[in-house]
Specification:
Blueprint: E1 2-3, E2 6-9, E3 25-29, E4 34-38, E5 43-50, E6 56-66, E7 69-77, H1 81-89, H2 114-119, H3 121-130, E8 135-144, E9 147-155, E10 161-169, E11 172-180, H4 188-193, E12 195-197, E13 203-204
Antiparallel strand pairs: 1-2, 2-3, 3-4, 4-12, 5-6, 6-7, 7-11, 8-9, 9-10, 10-11, 12-13
């Protein structure tokens, strides 16, 4: 089935839960170049993502629920960051710090701080979770098919738990978030399923670590 150029392939999987077997789907998005697993077909919502220095970037939110558990993948497109913040800098007050740098190619920040915004996207996204009214129980560096990222676990005031994976790949920010009620198992299937594809839908795994903003390493065979 093709909806907004998003391809969904169905695969029956079992998630550990007390006396309940749940049907999950393997989901592939050729638009946003990722694959993962959801409980059923996710809802796809067009959205915007506000970056660190105020760029409203095009984004999509893929979401699904299973009982009281919630799952989502937010994908923010950072490809237009230079254009958006350069244009925005033209209207900033004279002398404002974000006006500095201009269009000089040697500028460390770029007009409107677009270079800093782009370079710090992963850290900024992580910081938004650290500001939540929740207890941070885990915060580690990780890699998903050798694409580096951050992984967090939070305990919320109602004792539910939130599990987050954040990565930057091909100039897109990916935020995979799952929240499960108190006492429920960790959403291991959702956490482990995130992966990368190319425009033809082929899975991607690299030979060495993929670092955001650095040359792309060769792919593994």
């Amino acid at each position: 089935m093709r909806v907004n150029h998003v391809v969904v392939a169905v695969l029956v999987l079992t998630m550990s839960a007390p006396a309940v077997a749940q049907e999950w789907t393997e989901f592939v998005s050729k638009e946003d170049l990722f694959s993962t697993a959801f409980p059923g077909s996710p809802r796809v919502t067009e959205s915007t993502y506000r970056s660190q220095f105020g760029a409203d970037l095009p984004a999509r939110v893929y979401s699904a629920t299973s009982g009281r558990s919630q799952f989502s993948v937010t994908v923010a497109d950072y490809r237009p960051i230079e254009k958006i913040l350069t244009e925005k800098a033209k209207n900033c007050p004279p002398g404002a710090e974000t006006c500095l740098g201009g269009s000089n190619p040697s500028s460390a920040t770029g007009a409107g701080y677009w270079k800093a915004d782009y370079a710090g996207a992963l850290v900024y996204a992580t910081r938004q979770f650290l500001k939540r009214d929740a207890v941070l129980t885990e915060f580690v560096w990780t890699s998903i098919d050798l694409v580096e990222g951050h992984m967090l676990q939070l305990t919320n005031p109602d004792k539910s738990r939130t599990f987050v994976s954040i990565c930057m790949h091909v100039d897109r920010l990916y935020i995979a978030e799952a929240t499960v009620p108190a006492g429920d198992p960790e959403p291991g299937l959702f956490q482990q399923a995130l992966g990368w594809i190319d425009e033809q839908g082929n899975s991607i795994r690299y030979q060495t670590l993929y670092h955001h903003g650095q040359p792309t390493p060769p792919r593994a065979r």
